[in-house]
Write a structure and sequence with these properties.
The protein has 220 residues and is mainly α. Helices cover 82% and strands 0% of the residues. It contains 8 helices and no strands. The structure holds protoporphyrin IX containing FE. Residues 26, 29, 33, 51, 61, 64, 68, 113, 120, 124-125, 128, 148, 161, 168, 208, 211-212 line the site of protoporphyrin IX containing FE (HEM). InterPro entries: Cytochrome_b-558 (IPR011138), SQR/QFR_C/D (IPR034804).
């Protein structure tokens, strides 16, 4: 991907754009999943719609998966390039300028989120793809709630999920305002974006923690 996107500015902007897209996805994902706390019927309705709507399935979902992969691959490329720049004396100034938009802990929190996504896809996404597009099982609009709560019976999984959400908060604490900066958003509203970023970075992961714990304690 680095070969395709040659200039470091283009890499930075594309990283910011993919981050903004994922920030919107995360909010949407929290809203849909939070409905499982409020009502099983509402969650089933949302999930059935998302799971069967052709626009969501064949346009938005591939864009999302591309966005996730792009963000991770680009994150690694930027990390490697920043490290290399730090090692070479004559570009040291440039290197430290770059590292201010992506502090070192972004790569570590990112790796934890990547590991979480591996588990999360194993839990939900792969079975879903298998159900619909490999085994072609008949659609049951009421199956989603049961499939969701079943996963949160296991305390180990709940702990792993909640740990990952803490790292997600760390990633977002820097990442939210950084993504705005990377796409060139730098004006009198920047302090407000910064504050909104802090609120988002705490509330969204907290919402996911709440969902996981709610279903765990509900299953006891
Ligand atoms: C308690 C928290 C969460 C629950 C209950 C949950 C639930 C789900 C479910 C049920 C699916 C399958 C959707 C489908 O294809 O039918 C899914 C997919 C997915 N989740 Fe989560 N999720 C949670 C947290 C997260 C977090 C924190 C992230 C990102 C860091 C995330 C990223 C994704 C992605 C990328 C997909 C695949 C795309 C999609 O089909 O929507 N999820 N999740």
């Amino acid at each position: 991907m680095s070969g395709i996107i040659k200039s470091s500015i283009a890499r930075k902007v594309s990283m910011g754009l993919s981050a903004l897209f994922l920030l919107i996805f995360l909010l949407q994902h929290l809203i849909v999943n939070f409905s499982s706390v409020l009502s099983a019927e509402m969650f089933n309705e949302f999930s059935h719609f998302m799971g069967t709507n052709p626009l969501v399935q064949f346009v938005l979902q591939p864009i999302l998966i591309f966005g996730v992969v792009f963000h991770f691959v680009m994150g690694f490329i930027l990390e490697i390039r920043n490290n290399r720049a730090r090692d070479v004396k004559y570009v040291q100034y440039k290197g430290s300028a770059n590292s201010s938009w992506m502090s070192r802990n972004m790569i570590y929190s990112g790796i934890v989120i990547l590991a979480f996504l591996g588990l999360h896809f194993y839990d939900f996404w792969f079975p879903e793809i298998g159900y619909k597009y490999i085994h072609f099982l008949p659609e049951d609009p009421n199956r989603y709630y049961g499939e969701l709560v079943e996963k949160f019976h296991d305390p180990i999984r709940v702990i792993l999920y909640c740990l990952a959400f803490v790292f997600l908060a760390l990633h977002l604490l820097h990442g939210f305002s950084s993504s705005f900066q990377s796409v060139g958003f730098n004006n009198k509203y920047s302090p407000a974006v910064h504050k909104t970023g802090k609120v988002y970075a705490i509330l969204i992961p907290l919402g996911f923690v709440f969902i996981a714990l709610f279903h765990y304690f509900n299953s006891l």
